[in-house]
Target: NAD(P)/FAD-dependent oxidoreductase
Amino acid sequence: MAEHEHVRVAVVGSGFGGLGAAVRLRREGVTDFVVLERADSVGGTWRDNSYPGCACDVPSHLYSFSFAPNPDWPRAFSGQPHIRAYLEHVTDLFGLRPHIRFGSEVKRMTWNGELLRWDIETSRGTLSADLVVSATGPLSEPRIPDIPGLDSFPGKVFHSARWDHDYDLRGKRVAVVGTGASAVQIVPAIQPEVGRLTLFQRTPPWVMPRVDRAIGGAERWLYRRLPVTARVRRGLLWGIRELQVQAFTKHPEELGFVERLARRNLARAVEDPALRAKLTPDYRIGCKRILLSNTYYPALAQPNVDVVAGGLAEVRGSTLVGADGSEAEADAIVFGTGFHVTDMPIAERVVGADGRTLAEAWKDGMEALRGASAAGFPNWLSIIGPNTGLGNSSMILMIESQLNYLADFLRRLDALGGRAALDARPAAVRAWNRRVQERMKRTVWNTGGCTSWYLDANGRNTTIWPGTTSEFRRATRRVDPAEYEVLRAPARGNASPQKAAEVGA
Model:
C-alpha cells in the first residue's frame, strides 16, 4: 500500500456486503476504490466459519446476488464450502482482485474535516478516502462469555468461528456452549466421533425440519440453459417469505401454528420426556431465530450426549459446572455463543467529525439513517447497519437495497461538484429510528418473551428490520436530500467546514 495513497472510496470487508459494494462501484463506473480485508482471502463470515456441518439456513437461490445467479448450487440449502466458492467466483467474475488489499486490518478511521476525507490507518500502512463503506458485518467478531475459571481450563478452548481443525475431537470429552445456529449444526456433526458430548444450554431454541435436497444435474442444466427458471424459483422463495413477514411484525399470534409444528418435530425425535422438557422453549416461536435441522434432536437423544439446562456457570480445572449445579469433565470447550452484534468492535475504530468514536456516539444504542448513515460521520455508509437484519429471509436482499443507496449517495456527491461531503442530520436519524422502534413494539422479537442477540444491553432491538424486504428497498432507493447537510471544504483560515442548508445548495 502506498504511503499516502488516496482513493475515492474505501470499502472495509470482503464478505457479501463488501464484494457487493465493489461490484456496484464498478457498475457505476467508479474504479478508484480499494477493498480493505484483514484476512488473506475473501468470504467474510463464510470464510471464518468453517466448523463441521456449517451451512446456510436460507435457500441457495435466494442467498446469492441477483446480478450473479449461480445455476450450479448443489443443494437447496448450500454448505459453507460452496458459499465461499461462490464468493471467490464473484470476485473473479467482476475483476475485483486488483482492488482488494489483503492483510489490511483497519486500525483507525478518522474524519478529516479540513480536507473532507477519511484518514485510514491499516496494518499495512495509511491511506485516505473521500467515502468509506463499512461492510464488516455483524457476524465477524466472536463473543466468548466471561465464565469464572475459564482461564484455568487445561484443555482446548475455541469459538465456532475460529475452529481449530488441527485438534482431533475423536474420543474426546467435548463441551459445546450455546444453542444458536452454529451449535445446532456442530452438535450432530461431531456427536458420532466424540467420546462424550455435553451441551450447555442456556435457552432452548425452536427447531423446524430442514427441507433440504440435492439439486440434480438435469435441474442445474435447466437453470443454465433457461436462466428464467432460476429467476422464477428465486422469486417464489422471496414471495413466500414476504407473505410471512406480517406474522413476525404485526400478528405474532399467527405463529402458533408454526409452533405446533415445531413441537411435533421435537416429539417425533425425542422420546425421553425429561429430555423433551429440557428442549422445549417457553417463549413464542420467532422471538429468537428459528433454526432448521433434521439431525439436532436425534443427536441429543444419543447415549453419549448430556444436556445441561441453564448454561455454563463456572470452570474448575477440567470440571465444568452448570447453572443447575451439575458437573461434567471435558477435554475441550467449543463456544457457539455468537458475535458482537450490538457492540461491533469496528465502532471503536471510527472517529467522527466531533472527535467521538462511533462507539461513543452509539453508547445508548446503535442507530443510523436508513441503516446506513450515522450523524456526525460524514461520507460514511454502513452495509448491514443498525436495524437491517432479518428474521425470516435473505440478507442478500437487504444488502442489494443498501447498494442502491450507496449508488445514489455517490451520484449526489457528483452533482455537488468540488470537495463536498454529506452528513446525516441528527433530527433525520432520530426520526428514522423513532419510526423503526415504534413499529418494533408489535413484533415477535419484542413481545415474544425471550432474550436474544437482537436486543442490546438496554433491551432495545437495534438489529432487526420490522418490515418486508420490499419496504426496505423502497426506503433506500434514493437519498433524501432533506435528511443531509452538505459540508464544503473550509475557506482558507477557517478552521471548520462550511455547511450548506441542503443537498445541492
Summary: The chain has two domains: 5-140+340-500, 150-211+238-335. Residues 227-249 form the longest helix (23 residues).
